[in-house]
Amino acid sequence: MNSMARNRLADRIFRVVGLLATLLGLLLLAIFLWGLLRTGLGRLSGQFLSSLPSRFPERAGIYTALLGTVWIMVLTALLAVPLGVAAGVYLEEYGRKRRWAALLEINITNLAGVPSVIYGLLGLEVFVRFLRLGSSVLAAASTLALLILPILIVATREAIRAVPRSLREASLALGATRWQTIWYQVLPASAGGILTGIILALSRAVGETAPLLVIGVLAYVPFAPSQPLDEFSALPVQIFNWISRPQHEFGVNAAAAIIVLLVITFGLNGVAIYLRNRWRQQLP
Amino acid sequence: MSELQVEHVNVYYGTNHVLKDISMAIAPNTVTALIGPSGCGKSTFLRLFNRMNDLIDDFRYDGRILLQGQNIYASDVAVEELRKRVGMVFQRPNPFPKSIYDNVTYGLLLQGVRDRAVLDHAVEHSLRQAALWDEVKGDLRKSALALSGGQQQRLCIARVLAVAPHILLMDEPASALDPISTAKIEELIHELKQQYTILIVTHNMQQAGRVSDKTGFFNYGQLIEYDDTRTIFTQPHHEQTQNYITGRFG
């Protein structure tokens, strides 16, 4: 066998291996989804979405948990987005050549890899106990905001870095200050990328369970939160609670709630993908 | 008096000595062509006048550059103000991803001009000066990115003119354009000379010969020869210049 034939054989083998690897991942996902839908889909109904938690599985619903999840999503976004975007802009546009900015950068990348349960401990100590926020929506949202801050900063920086240098130069050469250039050119040109990052970060926050458990978010809350200091429940906590119960019916409830949570995260990811594609087409 | 006076300027990028002891005087309402092989420092030289090199991390310089007698690198000079007086057109057309109208008014908006009538007038006047008005007057709301390359470059020129600078820096403004667009830009340079002092970097010897009054030849960071364009092209004093313009190197 000459080297040409050998290379071609290697090429073909790699294609088959790659295909199998891809299929394996998809297959596992399909099995998971199939099992989930078979168990939970029948339980999904208007009653399930609009009922309060109950110790009778057939009467229990996810109303308060769903609203709690919406609450923390909005509050987390309000807290994390301005901070994350501002920090990303600063690091990319102003702090780039400073030595301590390089140090910050390494730390931020590391923070993105810290297990979420550690953030939960931080939230418990700082927000729940020290600031006396209790296991409230605000405490949970603050904790999740810290958790997604590094992701937001990195996403913002990447989006800003993709803005062509020629655009900045054109603006500066017309007498714009650095801030004017950021505000009128850099941010609009990178808005799609930043927005994509925000949505992906939020979809991560929505599914987080560990930090919420650590800061003491309850599974049984018989009312929907009406202000940031209310106690509340959230979908992942509700699911966790139901799954750990012995009765089979609660398992069915958990499956149905997981479907709802998946719809939310897939929806958010879908929007993110749509925005990313639109943004790519716009770049010159 | 000369409009621009360059006195013993040295430029370094880190330890790299890119411009060596350059002195040059530029008279108002003239076109000066800067020629030389790639990497000779002519673009760096051009970017000294609107301080675009300041954006480069390890840029250092010494010497003086006087604009109408004032040192543009003095500590009390606001860079933004300087750049309003010294406009720049880049090698590749770089319009903003906005409408034609918004591209032209950008510089004025930065200065806080909001008066509709003033902006409208500036748009028409600048586009006429840049010989683009007749082609776009019906469609000022169209995206600038929908224009052809040549039109985009003239829009970029109009955008600079709207800020009313004294000096125009052009960094190979026609190198990305087709011959017809190039001819239009050259014609434009000829017109603009009446009101502006123009410095143009070019790789095209014929272009330098056609549009400029004076020509400076750079090589290895040195200004080898600076004289009337006619002299440079017919009887250069240096052999290097002779070799370069006849195409023997570079």
TrEMBL record, chain A:
Residues 66-272 form the ABC transmembrane type-1 domain. It comes from the Bacteria. InterPro entries: MetI-like, MetI-like_sf, Phosphate_PstA. The chain crosses the membrane at residues 62-91, 111-131, 137-160, 181-202, 254-275. It holds the Pfam family BPD_transp_1. It is a multi-pass membrane protein. Keywords: Cell membrane, Membrane, Transmembrane, Transmembrane helix, Transport. Its main location: membrane. It is found in: Cell membrane. Belongs to the binding-protein-dependent transport system permease family. CysTW subfamily. This is Phosphate transport system permease protein PstA. The lineage of its organism: Bacteria, Pseudomonadati, Bacteroidota, Cytophagia, Cytophagales. The gene is pstA.
UniProtKB/TrEMBL annotation, chain B:
SMART domains: AAA (SM00382). GO terms for molecular function: ATP binding. Gene3D superfamilies: P-loop containing nucleotide triphosphate hydrolases. Keywords: ATP-binding, Nucleotide-binding, Phosphate transport, Transport. It comes from the Bacteria. Residues 4-245 form the ABC transporter domain. It holds the Pfam family ABC_tran. Transmembrane segments: none annotated. PANTHER family: ABC TRANSPORTER I FAMILY MEMBER 17 (PTHR43423). This is Phosphate ABC transporter ATP-binding protein. The lineage of its organism: Bacteria, Pseudomonadati, Bacteroidota, Cytophagia, Cytophagales.
